[in-house]
Amino acid sequence: MEIEIAAKRLAELGHSTRLKIFRYLVRGGKQGVPVGEIQAALGVPGSTLSHHITRLVSVGLVMQKRDGRTLYCVPQYKELDGLIAFLKEECCINEC
């Protein structure tokens, strides 16, 4: 992973509301979570929630899909795994 991409993703997760949203989505599983459920669970106003979800989508950590009238947010586990691997890839490299 390029350092610029990792930095952007970490920056978006560095906001407490976005981190709460993303953690909620990760718990929700690969099928995703309806936006209304996220709003009810976290108590975030609709326009604010939309803003934060858009930011997570923009860096590839979340995808949105529509099923009828319901909009789902789906965490992108592959991207999350890549970010975690990036953070760990040089772990203990300088140990002797």
From TrEMBL:
Which GO MF terms does the UniProt record name? DNA binding; DNA-binding transcription factor activity
Check the record and name the CDD domains matching this protein. HTH_ARSR
Q: Where does the HTH arsR-type domain start and stop, copy by copy? A: 1-95
Pfam families for the chain:
HTH_20
Instruction: Provide the alphabetized UniProt keywords.
Output: DNA-binding, Transcription, Transcription regulation
What protein is this chain from?
Helix-turn-helix transcriptional regulator
Tell me what organism the protein belongs to: Marinomonas transparens
